[in-house]
Amino acid sequence: MIKPPFPIDEAARLDTLRRLNVLDTPPEERFDRLTRLAKRLFDVPIALVSFVDADRQWFKSRQGLDATETRRDISFCGHAILGENIMVVTDACSDERFADNPLVAGDPKIRFYAGFPLGAANGSKLGTLCLIDHAPRSMSEDDVRLLDDLATMVEEELAAVQLATIDELTGLSNRRGLQTVAAHALAVCRRTDRAASLLFLDLDGFKAINDRFGHAEGDRALMAIGRILLETFRDSDVVGRLGGDEFCVLLTGASPDGVQRALRRFDDAIRAHNAGSQDGPALSYSIGAVDYDRERHRSVADLMQEADEAMYERKKSRRQLPSEHS
């Protein structure tokens, strides 16, 4: 067996996949109807929409298979995402990459595999639409074109998912996207007993900015906040715009001192932005921070509500949390 190597754009690929906010989400009819169609059109026992994560392949849609994921190092899809076009394995038992693969020797006893890589807008290959059979077989040119067409339909649905979870103005996760990723991150923290903190940020005087400078300048202020949040917090932190002038950041695995350092970096970046902004309005904000407590916070909503209340108290008292610790 040959383990699939990593693509040269692996870091960017994984970042793109996670920003899609699709991993570990429930089944959706938009994908299930395409795998059902593929299974029927090609008369195969198994059809899957698979995403290749850091160390696993996870199935967003599956027909004819009970497993929800397998290890990446034994996956066929890990090989398929290395190319631009369909990967066809007519008989896995005679292919040195897969002959003694556990998925060939044991369940689901793969003999035939055809996987079309699913591409993102930036060119990254996130996973595949794939077909599996228990007997050797081949694919005609018409078969390849048909699978290509179905894979394109899956990519279109993925683009629609991204639009539904990304804030168009700032490019951050929107409320739905943030809640989806945050729920997954908190579940991991709960299982591994890791720390987490949530920051709830509100832009001060946003209505006055719109009234005095116009809505275009208000949009630029929101985009500036979003950019500074992305630049000053870690890549592993979940940053989102909840709507209006409200933003959230979920930090996982950060110590209390680490959270305070992040807040000071953000405040310094805001000050630097204001110092360099000659014509536009100065940015001011209020922020509330809450440490995750697995007993008190049963959901992302619980954590967000408490952080929102902490932010409101800060705003009401006209103080800013980072300034108090600078």
Explain how this protein is built.
With 326 residues, this protein is of the alpha+beta class. It folds into 2 domains: 156 residues, 2-Layer Sandwich (Beta-Lactamase); 150 residues, Alpha-Beta Plaits (2-Layer Sandwich). Helices cover 44% and strands 20% of the residues. It is built from 11 helices and 10 strands. The longest helix has 25 residues. It is elongated, with a radius of gyration of 23 Å. It starts with 9 loop residues before the first helix and ends with a helix.
Which short descriptors sum up this protein?
elongated; disordered C terminus; 6-stranded antiparallel β-sheet; alpha+beta; 4-stranded antiparallel β-sheet; Beta-Lactamase; 11 helices
**On the 0-100 scale, what is the average pLDDT?**
91
Note the beta-strand portion: 15-25%
Low-confidence region ranges: 320-326
Count helical runs.
11
